[in-house]
């Protein structure tokens, strides 16, 4: 629990592992017991057949909302399912109170189909600045943690994004065509060129982890929901990578970004991808 006059940095110095434990407990209590065990009535559509929500999403978010708010009094929680129920909840990102940004099951489609490629994402921000993040893939037994100015780790070992191998195709994960407008599809076409190996993304959180560990060179995403990007963007930053929108500015979790945007292992790669996105538009 945060003490009187304690800064966010001081809170994080004492509670990074406590947040990790809360994330692990939420997954153990509400997500993994339902993995490959979902009944038909536990899965619903939101905006359409590609936008799914399950009882695991709802219950894990409730678990985390209670645990995180209690850990940091005065903080607010912006969770994917809460925002779906009440879009005004998202406005907390614009305020000065500390904000927990939660995606209880990132990669719900994979989760529903029994694919282990999903994760739980939690980030802590204040005043639009990301301060810490947790990316937990329970079915893969992976936990990545980032704290601004203190680096990023995967299962306790330091993460370094590095740079792509010169002369090899640039590996880029892009927005799935099901989730893009015609204009965004046109921009993303710029990546389908010689020297680039582009493919549709899976769980955004796990794609960011792949960039942070150097297994993927870049992402190119066309939507800006903070719960999908906040944790991963800080993870990549603290691993030495960067992010840029199509106008060459850093991505803002508060919104209003020029899309698509990229997150990449290094500055040169980010600028190369932004150039290709512009050429494709």
TrEMBL record:
Record protein name field = inositol-phosphate phosphatase
Reaction it catalyzes: a myo-inositol phosphate + H2O = myo-inositol + phosphate
Annotated EC: 3.1.3.25
* Stored InterPro entries: Inositol_monoP_metal-BS, Inositol_monophosphatase-like, Inositol_monophosphatase_CS
The organism that produces this protein has a lineage beginning with:
Bacteria, Bacillati, Actinomycetota, Actinomycetes, Kitasatosporales
Q: What domain of life?
A: Bacteria
UniProt keyword Magnesium, yes or no? yes
User: Which keywords does UniProt give here?
Assistant: Hydrolase, Magnesium, Metal-binding
Concerning Gene3D superfamilies, the annotation shows:
3.40.190.80, Fructose-1,6-Bisphosphatase, subunit A, domain 1
């Amino acid at each position: 629990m945060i003490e009187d006059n304690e800064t966010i940095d001081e809170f994080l110095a004492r509670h990074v592992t406590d947040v990790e434990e809360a994330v692990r407990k939420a997954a153990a209590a509400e997500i993994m017991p339902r993995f490959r065990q979902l009944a038909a009535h536990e899965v619903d559509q939101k905006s359409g057949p590609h936008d799914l929500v399950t009882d695991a999403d709802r219950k894990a978010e409730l678990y985390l909302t209670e645990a995180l708010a209690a850990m940091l009094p005065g903080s607010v929680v912006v969770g994917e399912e809460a925002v779906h129920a009440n879009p005004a909840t998202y406005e907390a990102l614009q305020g000065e109170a500390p904000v927990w940004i939660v995606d209880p099951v990132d990669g719900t489609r994979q989760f529903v189909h029994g694919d282990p490629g999903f994760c739980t994402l939690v980030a802590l921000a204040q005043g639009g600045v990301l301060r810490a993040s947790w990316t937990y893939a329970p079915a893969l037994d992976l936990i990545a943690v980032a704290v601004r100015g203190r680096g990023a780790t995967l299962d306790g070992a330091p993460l370094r994004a590095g740079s792509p191998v010169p002369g090899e195709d640039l590996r880029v994960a892009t927005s799935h065509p099901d989730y893009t407008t015609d204009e965004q599809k046109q921009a993303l076409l710029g990546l389908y060129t010689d020297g680039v190996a582009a493919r549709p993304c899976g769980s955004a959180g796990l794609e960011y982890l792949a960039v942070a560990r150097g297994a993927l060179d870049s992402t190119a995403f066309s939507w800006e929901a903070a719960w999908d990007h906040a944790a991963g963007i800080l993870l990549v930053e603290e691993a030495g990578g960067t992010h840029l929108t199509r106008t060459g500015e850093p991505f803002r979790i508060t919104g209003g970004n020029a899309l698509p945007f990229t997150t990449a292992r290094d500055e040169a790669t980010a600028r190369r991808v932004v150039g290709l996105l512009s050429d494709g538009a």
